[in-house]
Design goal:
heterodimer; A: 104 residues; four-stranded antiparallel beta sheet; two-stranded antiparallel sheet; 4 helices; B: alpha+beta; Alpha-Beta Plaits; 2 domains; five-stranded antiparallel beta sheet
Chain lengths: 104, 450
């Protein structure tokens, strides 16, 4: 068992406009990319559970071969930069992904 | 086949870039310099309050080498979303700065200013034609009236009209613009396929974000059906992976990217290394939209913020922090009816526990120390400060079950203890609206400098 952090070269989050935060997981080896993709671990259900969000909040959840990447996008709560904002740029929401175990 | 070379020296005007590498690239020959100056990422305050993204001196430092290149080599400079939010005032501020810098150099420059402010009545007239945002929300008439500023994201048309017009132009200073728009306008005019033109813009507007290591600038060498990307600085490389990965950045999905003119389809793109630092991209397609649309951005002031910050180290309190903070807020609500009525709000950001992710934080372990940022928003600065003091005093002195430390609960690092930080804004409008028949984006030509 290996964590996603050990397999990916980039794990990041960022605003995609003021209503969504998008997450990118990038790999530098096609075999590792295929291993993670084929593990079936990165699903809408798993990500919704991890982020304590309803599945309907996860708008995109897809692998993207040209960039050896996995991407998902989640709805933001509240107003970006408004009262109660927690992460204006949305760039610090990725950490829970790092520890996701990927089967060997 | 003829090629067009477009240079973007930095992903954001004012963030700085290596001037020697810029100069060397310009001397080797470029057809246009394009730079983006705006973003909504830093939040709504720039639009709502008119603040610029960086200081005038930072803009001046970045502009001087570009304006010299414009004058010496006759290369046009296209600036989008001037000043951060791209309001009329920010466009005028940028033109005034260029006037001053041109005068310092003793040169005359022909500037076209494009304005993007939208009068509220234009929005009211089309409110029934607004598309819901990704959360399914549509703005009300009250939302529109609450906006202190509304801008529309221009597409390629205003840039294209200026470039094709009778008045020669050295510099275009545009208000709020869809970031890739100036690139698409310049390239389509030179016979480049729309898919290629928009894709170039999509990548170059972020400067060297598509390179490894990221940062600095990028040169695009463009022909009718493909383009090559080379970092401006020798120590960087564009690779097939770095370029493909960049198309993911800040976008909801990686393959279909909607814009004002239609849909950019990257599903069949190929990324090929030409050498160890240049990548060729081909296969980009663009499907034109059936109807003209434009994205509106409007910011409203929703109150005034006052904050305090402090730390808690006592495990007896940390173990019951949520119940305690709920009591603190209720206690403050007894002193300030505006808080109890919901006209003012308190948010506790508990650092060390879940300040970054809030309810989405999966780790619920109990920390040994937490920082508390108390954020109060109220209708007036005076009320925000009064509530802030009451809440801070509550956190400091209210008792809790099992309390041993009866002298105080909160370690306060700052003095003054309660700190007003100005108006709080939100994007009350961030919606796509039908633009058929709308006449937005007026242009003013002027000569500046000497």
């Amino acid at each position: 068992m290996t964590t996603l952090a050990e397999l990916a070269t980039v794990v990041r989050s960022k605003n995609a406009g003021p209503y969504e935060i998008t997450f990118d997981v990038l790999f530098d080896d096609p075999a590792v990319y295929a291993r993670v993709r084929d593990s079936g671990v990165l699903t809408v259900a798993r990500l919704a559970e991890l982020y304590r969000a309803p599945e309907s909040d996860i708008r995109i959840c897809t692998f993207f071969e040209p960039a050896l990447a996995f991407k998902f996008t989640i709805l933001r709560r509240g107003f970006q930069g408004g009262p109660g904002e927690r992460d204006t740029f949305g760039a610090a929401q990725h950490a829970p992904l790092l520890d996701i175990p990927i089967p060997d | 086949m003829s090629e067009t070379r477009i240079l973007t020296p930095t992903g954001m005007l004012g963030y700085g870039y290596p001037h020697a590498d810029f100069r060397a690239t310009v001397e080797a020959g470029v057809d246009a310099i394009v730079v983006d100056s705006g973003s909504t990422d830093p939040g709504p305050s720039m639009l709502g309050l008119g603040d610029t993204l960086v200081t005038e001196e930072s803009y001046a430092r970045d502009l001087r080498p570009m304006l010299r290149a414009v004058h010496e080599f006759g290369v046009p400079l296209l600036i989008g979303s001037a000043g951060g939010a791209g309001t009329n005032a920010q466009v005028d501020g940028m033109v005034e700065l260029i006037d001053r810098l041109a005068a310092e150099e003793g040169v005359v420059l022909r500037v076209a200013a494009v304005y993007a402010d939208v009068p509220a009545d234009v929005v009211h007239d089309r409110l029934h034609l607004v598309q819901p945002n990704p959360r399914g929300e549509v703005p009300t008439a009250a939302d529109v009236d609450a906006c202190t500023a509304i801008v529309a994201q221009m597409g390629a048309e205003p840039f294209a009209a200026i470039l094709a017009g009778p008045d020669p132009v050295d510099v275009i200073v545009a208000g709020r613009a869809y970031d890739p728009a100036p690139y698409a306008a310049f390239l389509e005019r030179r016979g480049v396929d729309a898919g290629v033109a928009w894709h170039v813009g999509k990548i170059l507007e972020c400067g060297g974000a598509c390179a490894e290591p990221k940062g600095g600038g990028v040169l695009a060498t463009v022909r009718a059906d493909s383009f090559d990307l080379t970092p401006m600085s020798p120590g960087q490389a564009c690779t097939p992976l770095s370029v493909a990965a960049h198309t993911l950045y800040e976008k909801s999905r990686p393959d279909l990217l909607p814009g004002p003119a239609g849909m950019l389809d990257l599903r069949d793109c190929t990324y090929t290394a030409l050498d160890d630092r240049t990548v060729r991209v081909a296969g980009s397609r663009h499907e034109p939209a059936e109807r003209a649309t434009v994205k509106l951005e409007g910011a409203a002031v929703v109150g005034h913020r006052c904050v305090f910050i402090g730390g808690v180290r006592d495990p007896l309190l940390i173990g019951q922090l949520d119940e305690f903070l709920t009591r603190v807020e209720a206690h403050a609500g007894e002193l300030h009816p505006e808080l109890a009525a919901g006209d003012a709000t308190v948010t506790f950001h508990v650092y060390g526990r879940d300040a970054v992710m809030g309810e989405r934080e999966p780790n619920r372990d109990t920390p040994h120390e937490v920082g508390i940022l108390g954020e109060i928003v109220a209708p007036t600065p005076a009320l925000a400060k009064a509530i802030c003091a009451s809440v801070r005093i509550g956190v400091l002195h209210l008792s809790y079950p099992g309390q041993k430390a009866t002298a105080g609960n909160l370690a306060l690092p700052l003095n003054p203890l309660d700190n007003p930080i100005g108006p709080a804004c939100v994007f009350a409008l961030f919606h796509v609206i039908d633009a058929e028949g709308l006449d937005l984006f007026p242009v003013v030509h002027r000569k500046v400098g000497a």
